[in-house]
Give the backbone structure.
Amino acid sequence: MKTVRIAGVPEHFNLPWHMAIEEGAFEERGILPEWTDVPEGSGRMCEMLRENRADLAIALTEGVVKSISEGNPVKIVQEYVSSPLLWGIHVAAASPYNNEGELQQKKAAISRPGSGSHLMAFLHAQNLGWETENLGFETVNNLQGAVTALTEGSADYFMWEHFTTKPLVNEGIFRRLGDFPTPWPCFVIAARIGLLQEQPGLVRHVLEVINLYTEEFRHIPSIDRTLANRYGQEVADIRDWFGKTRWSQGQISTDTLENVIDILYHLKLIDKKMPPGEFLYP
């Protein structure tokens, strides 16, 4: 058995991985997967890859691009979810703010610098015509940290995936002022260059397994109820999410990468533009 350490957020997007692990699909290929839930998100997962604490990560496209641009020895081996991520813009239930425009020059909660919640706050601000140089941030590590920060007032708003935060909206902990979709496919699978150099066949087998599961995922009987029960969601919300979500079994396009690179560079979130091919494996 060859061990592969996989990191991902504890969210409904990654149920195909858990099903493949629980059903022994990787072990049939001689692979022992070690999964780690990373509620802190993409910034933390990129750190884990850099620190050789993970071999593969299912992370946000923009987070991986930023990390590689900063010298992280990582490559994108495949697009994972080809649809955009729908970021909800949240405030505390008792917040005085009632629309997105009132959040200008207010403090955003982010999981960590370089995370999706950090990068999307810049992109959202640009979309509304705000001066991005004036954005303020409070690092909260994870969703529970954001609940604390917004409730106690150390941050004013928080951007996180719409359906993951929907239970908090339903419970009256957060109010959602709007949604902001990413202008690109939301998740990619990233791998350490060391793993790709030493065991390229292992990575190929992992991708073959997960691609089989994502191809069949939405056709599994009662999968909407399984997802709702496992992730504490309403069935109607899961069905809405399914209607917006598409998994991929191919590599992300260079045109898409160029768009991500251009926007991150324009927002001064990366210092240089690298050719799209330098982000990809092979």
